[in-house]
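Re: folding output
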Amino acid sequence: MLARLRKHALAALGALLWVPGLVHAIRFALEVAGDVDLVSSHLAAVPPSRLAAMKSLLLSPPGWLETLLLLGGVGLIWLDLRRNRARAPLATDAAPHQESPFALGIVTPDLAAQFNPILQKIWCETTVTPRMELWPIRAITDEVKLLRIAARSDVVVVHKLTPLMTETDDLANEVISILRNATRGYRPGKAVTTSDGFVVEAKRLKELLILLRGNDVWVYAEEHEKHLPESWDAPKELEWSNTEDQAILVFGPPGDYGEDTVMVTVDHGYSHINKPLLGGLE
């Protein structure tokens, strides 16, 4: 405890200099004026003029004094922080001239690895994403959210991971039809709104989701961006000028043991190279 006090002595002194200002700020709540009047009435031996001067100084200190004490406290705290920072400089793994998180000592490869190996790859390593990749697709029960996913997409990509009877297959096909009618590809330039048509579609979609769940068929959905043109060539850097927004729609079995996702193969369009977020610092 004593060592900590010695280490931050300047900061503690600076904080103490704020006390007069704080007392002045809360004197109305505590009715300090009334208390001072009560005490001064019992101190007959003290000349009234001196008591009046002391009371005026305590309750209404000069503005320049409060400003001076505040600036002095801030200055001492700043000196204390600078002194302690100088004792423990930040480690760097990059050249000092590089203006990067590595050079500033904010993020290092070792630090990234301690948190998560995946984060280490994203931050520090160049990786390759294959064209076809397994993605987790989350279960969805909100009909409005499902419609909005479709409205932000150009196409609906359907996967049926569980056998469907004739009745459930008809229900699934109706869900597909509603969502495809809501996509930008079906209605260019139009978005799902709160119009009567949207309300009718949302209401029917909610009924279909309930009926499918009653038949042990869960609906899973996720947004995905496919890069064009399609290619099986060697990996290359991503080109954002030509993309296709997809709504991945999955009809699958119920989740076991609380799981609410299924793994589905998605098509990225072509294999691409992912540069590290902190590239060139290895």
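--- second protein (sequence, then structure) ---
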Amino acid sequence: MRTFAVYRHPTKGYEAVKHGFSWPGFFFTWIWAFAKGLPGIGGLLLLAWFVIQILNFSGEPVLAIFGGVVALVVVLIVGFNGNEWRRNSLAKRGYQVVETVEAQSPEAAIARALEEKGVESKGGESLTELGEAPASMSFPARFAGIFIEPGETFADIVRRPDIIWPLAVTVISGVVFTETMLAKVGMERIIRNQLEQGGQAARMSSEQLEQAVSQGAGIAGIIAHIMGVVAAPIYLLIVAGIGLAILNSFFGAQLKFKTAFSVTCYSQLVGVLGVLTGLAVILFGDVERFNAQNPMPTNVGFFLNPLETSKPLLALAGSVDIFTIWGLILLGIGLSEASGRKVKAKSIFLVYLGLWAVWIVGKVGLAALTS
């Protein structure tokens, strides 16, 4: 059991803040700060994150080590002080402490505080009907909530599903990444790197290589501009369709497509962090070694030398990606909430994981056949 201070605002409802170390603040720093209504601190932490990325991708070992030390100091400061910052912020915004209780979670702490105040379910009425439940979360709160409190956040999403904002953010982040890559690296260099890293360049004369680069860059550039816009919506529609089929056909749920698509869009917002990491690689890394097929340091394959690693192993190492696994976990949590928790998040996650494993096996097999 943990100790929580429960605050109440006359119009904004209840908030519960844990005493002690803030693990969400430790792991998610600036995302956590913005989600908890600390924009000033969030802005400073975001600036610190960018500085740390510059140090990490500077190419200088000493600066990279210094960046790691700075990162550790920053996350520890947020962890030890985060909850105190929240309490001070709530007090300044008109919240008042109503109870200090022992509970397992913020939601349980609020419920217990309400019970001790005599505000509890009566005659079949829920706390929502009594006007004690918080209002629907804003998009920024939902965005940050999927990292910090995914269960509570997806419950709110299921109650009021929306598509425009999460889809727009995903598409915009994809376009920004693509256009930055094309502007900073250039399609000709991308094609050249792929031919060199794949070993094809070694079998070409200088004239053949230049011709292949020139012809490939023109077509690939057009495709890249188009895919930067349409790739994410197509992928999300496929993932949502699979989720709808899984829950309705195999588990007997009655999930609506809008809800499934909204949950899917929000669960895949973790990819925005991947995009930020990829942008750091493009802006501060070595463009001569840039690999457009694996541009983010979120899997083992990113760190392998394509010229010294077999294609099947490279395909396998590049497929087991941190953000893909994270997105599948969130998808399981969200679709479980959408089913009214009739289907366990673990069951949904394992189904998606199995389908993903089949996809990886196919990629590795194709790489083996073409190597």
